Write the structure tokens for this entry.
Amino acid sequence: MPNVPPLPPLRWLSAADVEAAMPGISERLALAERTLVALATPNGAELPPKLAIHPGPAASFIHAMPAIYRGETVAGDLVGMKWVAGFATNTALGLPGISATVILNDPETGIPTAILDGGPITAQRTAAVSGVAIRRYGPTVAGRPPRAALIGAGVQGHSHLPVFGHVLPGVELHLFDRDRTRAERLATTARETEGIGSVVAHDDARSAIDGADVVLTAASFGPAVERQSMTNDWLAEGATIVPIDYATYCAAEVARDAALFLVDHREQYLANRDAGNFDGYPDPDAMLGEAILAGTPRPAGRVVVTHLGVGLADVVFADAIARVAAVRGLGVELPR
């Protein structure tokens, strides 16, 4: 009877473990750009559109997000999946609107090797992709600090603060959230964030966006939200707009009339448009990774970079976190 090799350890990493092993912001931006470039490289990755189910509470969803990052050999592949749930009704219960788990698999055997709380990964990989978009396609501002608007003071609002401070040093940050208390809480944190020059919390989204060089919308999903309210007349001519809330705020005309309209993953975006999540939106000019590889310059007009979040980024981030956690002895090794 042949000797059966021992199964690799299965490590569980809690949210606290994940945060303790999270790379610094420069490495997070590098991991995000690596992900985007892989998506745009032939045979660089395998990423089907999100598989979705929709439980009973209004505007709820659960997505399965499998992905493979292709290495130079099979042993160098990164294989895994995020299982993420979004329940807009959780806010009223005092619970997180988004919860997630990431599973990593051995690329040569398929055996699961790590299970990670996906909440911190979702927050930080999303913010890092935004950072890549702003660093690559933010407007050039001379003679004054850059001005940025951040709409939404939830988890994503908080995770984006270090990114704004890093890629827009000295930024004047203007905030809005429908919940004034949340907005003020975010403003307090922003004032303590390295690289952020000044902070103003506004009573309405339009006044926060007025004159902004960079606009990032991270509003909570939900049936009470008026969709596509941010139209062209809200925006400065050369602004860079980064919606991470699908078409919750950003009107289709903004994407249609943009000088450059980029998405993180074309097939996923088109599948969501077919499902009605981007009514009236155009085809993208390119994926962000394609634009990076092609050296596409920033045009003079508005740029819109819509990113829906790709499972490949979760797998790439989870792998980096799991490697650090194993070295530091973080987490719990679960029995097989």
User: Anything to note?
Assistant: The longest strand covers residues 61-69. Residues 35 and 313 are 6 Å apart (CA to CA). The mean pLDDT is 95.
